[in-house]
Amino acid sequence: MFFVYQAVNSIDKIDPLVNSVDTRRNPGSAETAEETPADAAPARRRFSLAERERQILDGAIQFFAVHGFDGQLRDLAKSIGVTHALLYHYFPTKRALVDRVYLEVFEGRWRDEWDELLDDTRPTVEDKLTAFYTEYVNITLTRDFVRILMFSGLMDHTITDRFFLMLRKRLFPRLIRETRRFRGLSSRARPTQREMELLMGLHGGLYYVSVRRWIYGQGVYIEDAPMVYDDRMVRDQVRGYLLASRELFGGAAAPAVEAKTIAANKRAVRR
């Protein structure tokens, strides 16, 4: 079904990647100079157009994640190891490069399988939301995603506006629909402001996990798996959201399911 996110390193100290980036990305650069005999010219592999564009795009993602969008393209070109003119050959304007970064880091990480999962009526609502958010947090909310989104929010909102528009169209209505289904409701009305705010408590809380890591240099503390936000912790937050939905969504909703959720929370507390 959905793959399991692999464990990452310990959080005994601040992650050195939070505010740093390796800018030596050009093959044949100083990284390999020591391995080249003094009397031999270093071999330089010619990049295809697609490979060179990929090199520039990867470098731009890392550059913007560290410096934000105030960084100069001359500095970006230097960090990648290409000329300023070559960078402009592939991306004639800074806006064109930012648009390409957005498609790569934000829309490009959304998976069609998530739509299918949330539309599947067979699993319970709790299981569906847990499965979705476990993957969403660990796959989508990476260092470059979180830092670029934060920089955009502090600047011109070019990326944040596009990304949240996608969420409002593709994700949030599905989650509200599933919450109503959990409560035994079949309404197809547009989500109310209160419904959306309650949902954002869940969505924003899970996003904040990655903010703690990639902005504040902190981590998620789990005894047997430091820095991994696994399905147990996601499920805890999903259960809290579904239980909180009773007053707002009403309905004589799935009492057996709710009782099961409450019992599971009590067992987790006892452990």
Give an overview in words.
By secondary structure, this protein is mainly α. It folds into 2 domains: 17-27 and 47-105, Arc Repressor Mutant, subunit A; 113-270, Tetracycline Repressor, domain 2 (Orthogonal Bundle). The chain has helices spanning 49-67, 73-80, 84-90, 94-105, 112-119, 125-140, 143-154, 158-170, 172-182, 193-214, 231-249, 255-270. Helix 1 (49-67) packs across helix 7. The two termini are 28 Å apart.
Which helices and strands, and how do they pair?
Layout: H1 49-67, H2 73-80, H3 84-90, H4 94-105, H5 112-119, H6 125-140, H7 143-154, H8 158-170, H9 172-182, H10 193-214, H11 231-249, H12 255-270
Compute the CA-based radius of gyration: 23 Å
The 3D shape can be described as elongated
* Structural class category: mainly alpha
Helix content: 55-70%
In the CATH hierarchy, the third-tier topology of the largest domain is known as Tetracycline Repressor, domain 2
- Count helical runs: 12
| CATH architecture identity of the largest domain | Orthogonal Bundle
Helix and strand pattern:
HHHHHHHHHHHH
User: How large is the share of residues in beta strands?
Assistant: under 5%
CATH class of the largest domain: Mainly Alpha
Q: List the domain count as a whole number.
A: 2
Give the overall average pLDDT.
81
Could you list the spans in which at least 5 consecutive residues all have pLDDT below 50?
A: 1-17, 21-36
Number of strands: 0
Largest sheet: none
N-to-C span? 28 Å
